[in-house]
Amino acid sequence: xxxxxxxxxxxxxxxxxxxxxxxxxxxxxxxxxxxxxxxxxxxxxxxxxxxxxxxxxxxxxxxxxxxxxxxxxxxxxxxxxxxxxxxxxxxxxxxxxxxxxxxxxxxxxxxxxxxxxxxxxxxxxxxxxxxxxxxxxxxxxxxxxxxxxxxxxxxxxxxxxxxxxxxxxxxxxxxxxxxxxxxxxxxxxxxxxxxxxxxxxxxxxxxxxxxxxxxxxxxxxxxxxxxxxxxxxxxxxxxxxxxxxxxxxxxxxxxxxxxxxxxxxx
Length: 266
Description:
This protein is α/β, with parallel strands linked by helices. The chain folds into two domains: 3-103, CATH 3.30.1330.30; 109-265, Alpha/beta knot (3-Layer(aba) Sandwich), CATH 3.40.1280.
């Protein structure tokens, strides 16, 4: 049976609010996700929040009811609260109807089956949570096997990244790794490492892509380091006809992913 919390001073409200901070997420290994669409995506992948907050006005919504029922059936807690508290948790003046506290669920390289997909996404020192979320959405759209984050990337479980992923965080496996372990794992089996570089001579539309292809996107500001470029099986570029010298990292990843899919299919 859901309980009701209406006081800002409630310790659980403070705990949930603190999960907006990376330090608290690191200690607790839990994170916040908000919005009926995102939490429903999570539920459909059999990931349920440990604690579900929802507004009283949305209690009878079929999807909110289903979430609440499943959370409690799985041993979690369902809490009815106020729009003001939901706004405090989400950090937005127009809060979503539901907010959930989830356990983090990183995958690791050893758990990945590279034969499951023809396209894999790899991002190096990605800094922007919006870019990370958008790349996850691209991964979901193209059926990528997963997203491998190399080096000091933005936290995929930050509120901003989770929000930008629109639920793809729950559908696309995410692995965090350093470069050396990733390269050793990659070279232990089949896989073509394709780097996107402004210095490449090969047009991305003329290259021959094998499967599985691992598409490496470098840091938004600096691109990929020379040692990573040298380790790639192929470097390709997206031609720029205007005055801009490059595309946004997430946009470039999407353009590449769809081109690779099309060429693998052809």
